[in-house]
Each structure stands twice: as C-alpha cells, then as structure tokens.
Amino acid sequence: MAARTEERDVVVRSVYSADGTTISYRSVGSGPGLVVVPGAFALAADFDALSAALADRFTVHTIERRGRGASGPQGDTYGAAAECADIEAVRAATGARFVFGHSFGGFLTLEAALAGSAFERIALYEPGVSIDGSIPIGWADLCRRQLDAGKPAEAFLTFVQGINPETSGKAPRWLLRLILPLAIKKPERLQKHTLLPAAMREHAEIAARDNTFPEYGRLTQPVLLMAGKEVESTGAGRAAPRLHDVLPASELTLFPKLDHFGPEKDPAGIATALTTFFLSTGSS
C-alpha cells in the first residue's frame, strides 16, 4: 500500500526483493519510468531535488537501498548480487525503462544490467568501479576497530583518507579534523557516520571486483557516463573515461565545475543531461 509523505507529489512504496527483503522506493512525476540508485552514504531522500527536476518528463523511482530507512537490512549474506536483485524488483514493479546510478549506485547499476535487468538506457555519474586498485579497501580494518571502539568520527576520517589516497589521503589527520566540519554540515556527517558500517561492506564488494570492468563491454544498451572536475584525480572520476573505452554504445559528458556529488549539488544541470539522453532517439 502506498504511503504519502509530507511532500505532496512523492509517494513511498515498497516491494519484496528475491530474498524476501523489503525494498522501499520514492516515486514522483509522470512519464516513462526512471529508477535512481543512490550511492554508499546516501538516502533516497537525498535525491529528491534531482527527482523533482526530472518529474515533468519522467516517473522517477528512487530506491532506498537495503540497510537504510524503511528498507530491510543488508543481511548476513550481503553481496552485490542481492542489491542487483533489489534493483530488478523495483524495475519489474514499476516497468521502468531507464536507470541512473551514482557512485556505488553506478557500480550496482552496471552489475544489475550485466545480470539481465532489462533497462533500455543507462546513465551513470562517477560510477564506483575499481580499476587498477583505484578503490582501495586497506583502510577497512582500522575503520572497523574505530567503529567498535565507539569512535565513528575517527572511523569516517579513516575512510576519507583511505578511499582517496592521492587527494584527501595526503592531508594530515589533524587538518582533516578541522576541514570536515566546515565542508560537511553536521546532519550530513551524522548520516555518514550511521551508514559507515554498511558502506564498508559495499566498498569491499567493489574492491573484490577490481579490474573486472571489461566485462561491462557485453552491455549493448546506450550508456551515458558523467564525471566532474576530479575526472583525473580520483578513482571514481577516472572510472568514467575508462568505462567509455569498453562500453560499445557509450558517450561521456564532463561537468568541470562539479565534484563527486554533482547530482545532489546541481540537480538541474544533471537532470538536463539525463533528459536529453533518455529521450534521445539515437543509438548512443
């Protein structure tokens, strides 16, 4: 049964995934169906502005990924395959033709398409695909110990340093302690602290598939790859052009003024690119 939220046009629905886990999703708009798959530290509501910008042309269904909100837990046997089944369950329930994935959600989107989810067109913003170790996992042990010790802020610092060794990883820890509260508002920081245990499992899934990205070359759907100004300095940024080389029907669009969180920071700009791509009648 659908439950309306405080936002008049957004309807929250749920579906059962293949393993019986409840997967919630937020729907808004009218037009062809578009599934949105958020990244590691995001909630479905974080994409409400993007969904609103798309709602005049699409019916947007943003997944509340497992381990978050009204969706069920990740589960003891968590893996990327379970999340691919979640995406497929939402696709089947909504009849959506299109899909957009951000960061870890982009990785899951590619995996779901490879597993057979019948999306006609795929769009990705800085997909979290590991290439030549570009998404490391060596930080995880220390991060886990800090979480177990009740120090989520320190654990998140460890993640920030470990995940981008070429950029934030070079900054002294004391400096990051000063910068992060200025760069990330408290509610967002607390959300990231809460989702960090889930994010650790998710990043382990990416690392386990390091350098398997040529397999995505089997996908024949048109794919829009997007990246921001860190296209040469972060693993997620570099993934887009590398995937462009292997995906046979792909195009690459750069947003030189945006960072990794472009879909949240410039929803109108990203929505324009998505609308043009999804409603295109060309083959790529």
Properties at a glance:
alpha/beta, disordered N terminus, about 280 residues, 9 strands, Rossmann fold, about 15% strand, 2 domains
Give the helix proportion (percent range): 40-55%
How far apart the termini lie comes to: 38 Å
- Supply the number of structural domains: 2
User: Strand percentage, roughly?
Assistant: 15-25%
Describe the structure.
With 284 residues, the protein is an alpha/beta fold. The protein has 2 domains: 3-133 and 210-278, 3-Layer(aba) Sandwich (Rossmann fold); 140-207, no CATH class. It contains 10 helices and 9 strands. It has helices at 48-54, 80-94, 104-114, 140-148, 152-163, 173-183, 186-208, 235-246, 262-265, 267-278, and strands spanning 3-4, 11-16, 22-29, 33-37, 59-64, 98-102, 121-125, 223-227, 250-254. The protein has a 9-stranded mixed beta sheet, sandwiched between helices. The longest helix has 23 residues, at 186-208. The radius of gyration is 18 Å and the shape is globular. The termini are far apart. Mean pLDDT is 94; it is low at 1-7.
